[in-house]
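Anyone up for a design puzzle?
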């Protein structure tokens, strides 16, 4: 459907939990608790109702996110049920990868269309410093990537650019040389704890990559739902992507809305304003009422985020609470 600025909104990111088994320092650092209780979180049948209404409005692409979506039981079953909705085009998932090896069979059987794995570093010490996880193994990560590729599952890797990994960009990007996967670098957004951390310039990182792969050049290929812009090199099987939401805002082409784990519809990352779909669903609304409320909230999606004018931001929750 079109919003008030004529943008085609066809993509919804759905958070199914605010819990996580990692403690990434820009998202949910050590000591942060997950405030939502069991009953506060949308049940799967409630999420499916929202999906059905969204598909009727032309939102046909969904990304399952969190918190860490794979810590919630039944994630693969939810995906299978979503995939059965008439008119739906694709369901993808973003995960920190920790539980992925044991869930890959179920996710593939459910019909998952593509996968994003968040990976900020290949160095176990840095991994511990960034995420709190003590047992990272680059060998296991490579085995996981090989497994995904053998199954033909479209896979992308995402690294948030941080002081810890600003010198590791070539090593991370080389995974796109070794495997047919895209490696994407995400500019740190001033959401939650990210707001008080140093931002690393994507242009600086692109410079490093161009020194290593001199033929690296922009490509117009569309590779997924989002705003990433991509670069190709003859040496790489996959592509290198950048998601620089702050320095190169892509709001004019934004196609997404978010559903938090507690059922708040969130049209823009920067603003807290939401539609309380959980209250509506639990008030016994009809399908028509649900669809109308959704349509009105999406239509009013703000024109642009205010990451560069922080005083105008009204969103103060963490990315894990919002659903990144
Ligand atoms: N746990 C899953 C994961 O890590 O992929 C899904 C949820 S996580 C919030 C989704 C994505 O948001 C991750 O790639 C994470 O790195 C990114 N993220 C979290 N906080 C961010 C921030 N302040 N700026 C940019 N990206 C952020
Ligand atoms: Fe967990 Fe993902 Fe946030 Fe890291 S980025 S703390 S893995 S939700």
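Challenge accepted. My sequence:
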């Amino acid at each position: 459907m079109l919003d008030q600025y004529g943008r085609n909104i066809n993509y919804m990111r759905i958070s199914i939990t605010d819990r996580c088994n990692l403690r990434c320092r820009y998202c949910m650092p050590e000591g942060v608790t997950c405030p939502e209780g069991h009953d506060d979180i949308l049940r799967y049948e409630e999420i499916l109702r929202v999906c059905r209404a969204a598909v009727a409005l032309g939102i046909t692409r969904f990304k399952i996110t969190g918190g860490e979506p794979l810590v919630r039981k039944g994630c693969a079953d939810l995906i299978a049920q979503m995939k059965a909705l008439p008119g739906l085009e694709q369901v993808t998932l973003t995960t920190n990868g920790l539980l992925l090896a044991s869930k890959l069979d179920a996710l593939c059987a459910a019909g998952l269309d593509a996968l994003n794995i968040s990976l900020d570093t290949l160095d176990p010490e840095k991994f511990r410093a960034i995420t709190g996880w003590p047992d990272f193994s680059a060998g296991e990560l490579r085995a996981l990537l090989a497994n995904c590729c053998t199954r033909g599952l479209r896979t992308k890797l995402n690294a948030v650019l941080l002081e810890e990994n600003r010198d590791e960009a070539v090593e991370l990007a080389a995974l796109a040389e070794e495997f047919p996967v895209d490696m994407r670098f995400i500019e740190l957004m001033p959401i939650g704890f990210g707001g008080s951390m140093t931002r690393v310039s994507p242009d600086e990182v692109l410079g490093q990559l161009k020194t290593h792969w001199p033929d690296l050049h922009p490509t117009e290929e569309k590779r997924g739902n989002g705003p990433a812009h991509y670069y190709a090199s003859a040496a790489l099987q996959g592509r290198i992507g950048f998601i620089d939401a702050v320095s190169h805002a892509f709001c004019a082409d934004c196609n997404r809305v978010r559903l938090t784990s507690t059922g708040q519809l969130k049209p823009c990352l920067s603003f807290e304003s939401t539609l309380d779909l959980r209250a509506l669903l639990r008030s016994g609304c009809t399908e028509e009422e649900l669809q109308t409320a959704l349509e009105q909230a999406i239509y009013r999606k703000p024109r642009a985020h205010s990451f560069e004018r922080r005083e105008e931001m009204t969103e103060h929750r963490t990315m894990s609470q919002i659903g990144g």
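A detail worth pointing out: Residues 20, 26-27, 65-66, 68, 94-96, 118, 158, 160, 186, 188-189, 191, 194, 319-320, 324 surround S-adenosylmethionine (ligand 1) (CB under 6 Å).
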